Amino acid sequence: TEIQPLIGSKEGILHISMAFLNPGDGVLVPNPGYPTYASVTQLVQAEAFTYKLLPENGWEPDFEALEAMDLSRVKLMWVNYPNMPTGAKATMALFEKLVDFGRRHGIVICNDNPYSFILNEDYLSLLKVPGALEGCIELNSMSKSHNMPGWRIGMLATNPTFLQWIMQVKSNVDSGQFRPMQLAAVEALKADQTWYAGMNAVYKRRRLLAESILKALGCTWDPAQSGLFLWGRVPENGLDGAALSDKVLYEANVFITPGFIFGSQGERYVRLSLCCTEENLAKALERVNTLK
Fold first, then answer.
1. What is the pLDDT of residue 237?
2. CA 145 to chain CA mean position, Å
3. Which of 109, 168, 233, 251 could form a disulfide with 136 if both were Cys (CB 3.0 to 4.6 A apart)?
4. Whole-number pLDDT of residue 47
5. Long-range contacts of 65-70, Cβ-Cβ distance < 8 Å, separation of 24 or more
6. Alpha-carbon Rg of the chain, whole angstroms?
């Protein structure tokens, strides 16, 4: 009554939005952040109100700035910790602030949480905060946590009332994931800490290569980042993230993601993916080192 399997967690963003929003309602969306939060908000004819995430705040919401906003139409707030694209880690202090903020303003807090098991020692959930279940929703995805992209296995967790509202939407959209996929996911969930340690050992080796690529490009990064990506700040006296990405693509035949696609706060950043094999990352580093 509190957990709903999803055909990938991405569909949950749409189902939640359709269940909780009417045209003209407001939604708090992070900048930088996963673009789907804003695009789905637009699809359901609600209005996205962006809130800035800044490095000086540890890429956490500025609650003073949020309190100063007109929140009268806001029904949902999307958060994503551990964060993508910035790699900022989740903390219980942050989750407690979010639960309190949502409770006081009648805003449903939705935490998109697929990265907690990747290069991260603290497996935290928004729903660990006492009382959070009453007004919060959390999404997760086995694409990230168990290396199962394409299997489309995700889930959301919330209180039974919210779950019923979401199911009124979902049950009219699909009839659930293919059962053998779900049974395979059950087996994957039985993995012990040894398996996770092995997975993270691979990501650590890839991370070192990704850091070398950023260093070769003159970028800086926070070594405390977690998750499946590496977020690097481009030099102040050089190209912005988009121009640097183009240069690397056209002159070195290596694709890196320009930070602007995650919002205006990402314009001075680029993102590298740790989904690449060590072999491909080493090739990318070799090519980047030829840039002038």
1. 84
2. 12
3. 109
4. 98
5. 66/28, 66/101
6. 19
- Going across the sheet that includes 154-157, the strands are 3-6, 154-157, 136-141, 108-112, 74-79, 26-31, 47-52
Structure tokens at 111: 């935490």
Which tokens hold the place of 198? 């092995």
Do 140 and 200 belong to one domain? no
Q: Look at residue 179 in the predicted model and tell me its pLDDT.
A: 93
2 vs 257: CA distance, rounded Å: 36
| Beta strands across the sheet bearing 229-233 | 220-221, 229-233, 269-273, 257-258
Q: Do 134 and 53 belong to one domain?
A: yes
Indicate which CATH number applies to the domain containing 264: 3.90.1150.10
Place of tokens 């020692």: 121
3-state helix, strand, coil in the chain (%, to 5): 45, 20, 40
* 259's tokens: 């930070």
Give residue for tokens 């729903």. 127
Q: Where are the alpha helices (DSSP H) in 47-141?
A: 63-67, 92-105
Angle 7-94-155 (CA atoms, 0-180°, nearest 5)? 10
Specify the pTM: 0.95
| pLDDT value for 121 | 85
CATH of residue 37: 3.40.640.10
The domain total for the chain is: 2
Domain that holds residue 141: 3-188
Which residue ranges of the chain lie beneath pLDDT 70?
none
